[in-house]
Amino acid sequence: MIKWMTGAALLLCAVPTLSQAADSASTHKNPLSVHVLNTQTGTPSSGVEVMLEQKTDSGWQTLATQTTNADGRIPALYPKGETMEAGVYRVVFETGDWYERQGTETFFPEIPVPFQVESGVAHYHIPLLLSPYAYSTYRGS
Questions:
Q1: In this structure, are residues 49 and 41 in contact, taking their beta carbons and an 8 Å threshold?
Q2: Fewer Cβ in 10 A, N or C end of the chain?
């Protein structure tokens, strides 16, 4: 049904779907997200295993392991209910296994990305732009 309004302004706003709201909420509550994009094809890299590690006095301690979703993302990689403390962490993208399943050779069997966490920073996002013989990463938002 269409209603005509006179003498009043009509305000339109976008309302997120439940899944968008859930993704947004989980991203903002969890301090770490990642995204893998296949730059050779311009598509998301779903099915990439990603490991999160924290540097300790005795080496690297594994905190979590997850796999990228259909959009090439892991919106909440840090363990649920835990607080991310200041220190050095790294995400390790298991690209060799992923490329093997794609039937493609790669020069990089895994890509470790170390990063520094500071107190008071609410969220870190680590994107990986990936091709068989090159990659790039940066601090996202």
A1: no
A2: N
Cβ contacts of residue 49 below 8 Å, gap of 6+?
A: 65, 66, 67, 93, 94, 97, 98
Task: Report the alpha-carbon distance of residue 113 to residue 110 in Å, rounded.
Answer: 10
User: Residue with structure tokens 């979703």?
Assistant: 69
The pTM score is: 0.79
User: Sorting pLDDT into bands at 50, 70 and 90, what band is 120?
Assistant: confident
Q: Which of the pair, 13 or 47, is modelled with greater confidence?
A: 47
Cα separations (Å) of 86 from 4, 115, 117? Answer: 56, 11, 5
**CATH number for 131:** 2.60.40.180
| Number of folded domains that form the chain | 1
Domain that holds residue 123: 31-137
